[in-house]
Amino acid sequence: MHPLSILISNDDGVFAEGIRVLASAASQRGHKVTVVCPDQERSATGHGLTLQAPIRAERADELFEKNVTAWGCSGTPADCIKLALYELLSDKPDLVLSGINHGANLGTDIFCSGTVAAALEGTLEGIPSMAVSVTSFQWNNFQVAANLTMDIVENVLEKKWPQSLLLNLNIPPIALEEMGPLRWTRLSIRHYEEQFMRRKDPRGNTYYWLAGEAVKDFKSAGDGPSEWPSDVAQINRAAPSLTPIQPDLFWRGELSDLPHIEIKNQLVR
């Protein structure tokens, strides 16, 4: 494959091990790599944009291999991609990668994921994009995930990346020889219970800590071939999950399930 121009971001910040390993893997394959990511952790920021404060960016090349150009940005992951595309890069990249995230981005959790938001921003700009996560906060060996990421994106690009396709890759925290085969998957529907812990500060004032550890995974979303497993089921089988996503969130249920709405004697059809 000819050398690619790759833009890499994340939501764990410029000091995260995952992004350094991914940038190194891409650079070692001969690709031109630019990193533009938050200057500190911005997890679970979703697709938020900074509109009420200035965005600052500083060079951070010293944190990466010598062939990698890097910036730490004061904004969100989505800010980072926008800033890179419109100010920091001279040319549009061939590919946007986001990750490698420390922790899973499975099912409907993608709606609050800064990792997925950065990749989605690339997709919205018409650039092939993929979000990558290792499904553990404790796992520190990101090389397997980085190599698998590069194998996938090089393969898909050679076969023509479909328009508006965002790929979401989740990888179990185990050695390569212990992993099952990579499969296409569907998004799970995830539900969190007891999300807030109520506490008292030293002055006796109440505050709340978002926890959300208890998770129920329901039947996967209806779209996609019925033989595909859900992304959560695939990870539970100790195998990598690759989920195709697109920005279109339009209702795909039965039209007859939509309510009849009457407003001032007008029926919404």
Number of helices: 5
Strand content: 25-35%
Question: What global shape is seen?
Answer: globular
Amount of helix: 10-25%
Distance separating the two termini: 51 Å
What is the SS-derived class? alpha/beta
Q: Largest sheet, order of strands side by side? A: 3-4-2-1-5-6-7-13-8
Major sheet size, sense and barrel closure: 9 strands, mixed
* Average predicted local confidence, pLDDT: 92
Q: Which regions have little confidence, pLDDT < 50, spanning 5+ residues? A: none
Number of strands: 15
Reading the helices and strands in chain order gives EHEEEHEHEHEEEEEEHEEE
What would you report as the Rg, rounded to the nearest angstrom? Answer: 20 Å
Task: Describe what is shown at a glance.
The chain is α/β, with parallel strands linked by helices and 269 residues long. Helices cover 21% and strands 28% of the residues.
Describe the secondary-structure layout.
Blueprint: E1 5-9, H1 17-28, E2 32-38, E3 57-59, E4 68-73, H2 77-88, E5 95-102, H3 114-124, E6 129-134, H4 143-158, E7 166-171, E8 183-184, E9 189-193, E10 196-200, E11 206-210, E12 214-218, H5 231-236, E13 241-245, E14 261-263, E15 266-268
Parallel strand pairs: 1-2, 1-5, 2-4, 5-6, 6-7, 8-13
Antiparallel strand pairs: 3-4, 7-13, 9-12, 10-11, 14-15
